Amino acid sequence: QVQLVESGGGLVQAGGSLRLSCAASGSIFSINGMGWFRQAPGKEREFVAAHNWSGGSTYYSDSVKGRFTISRDNAKNTLYLQMNSLKPEDTAVYYCAAAIYYTASFRRGSGVNYWGKGTLVTVSS
Length: 125
Hints:
This protein has 125 residues and is an all-beta fold. It has strands at residues 2-7, 10-13, 18-26, 33-39, 46-52, 58-60, 68-73, 78-83, 92-99, 114-115, 119-124. The strands form 2 sheets. Strands 2, 4, 5, 6, 9, 10 and 11 form a 7-stranded mixed β-sheet that branches. Strands 1-3-8-7 form a 4-stranded antiparallel β-sheet, with no helix packed on it. β7 (68-73) and β8 (78-83) form a beta hairpin.
């Protein structure tokens, strides 16, 4: 089992920045991909960014490309999401996710094996 705990959410003005963290614990050796999803009020959960550890590739949704950066700190078993130039439409609960075997289905959510409980990001206009 893998446990994921997000932190770093909060209230920020449009144009500002936040950095989310996701601390992983447990059977971390079994994971080879992690990422972030978000769910805005009244909307379905959507893919934000992912990091495939096998090949080192990163992936972003079109809505955040160029503004968000996903990264990891192996020593701390922590995944990050640096969010810049935030917009009110970025307001959502952000969830950390992990996969035992990363595939393209991760971005659809079906390839996710573990989820965090989420952290709320609110961007005011």
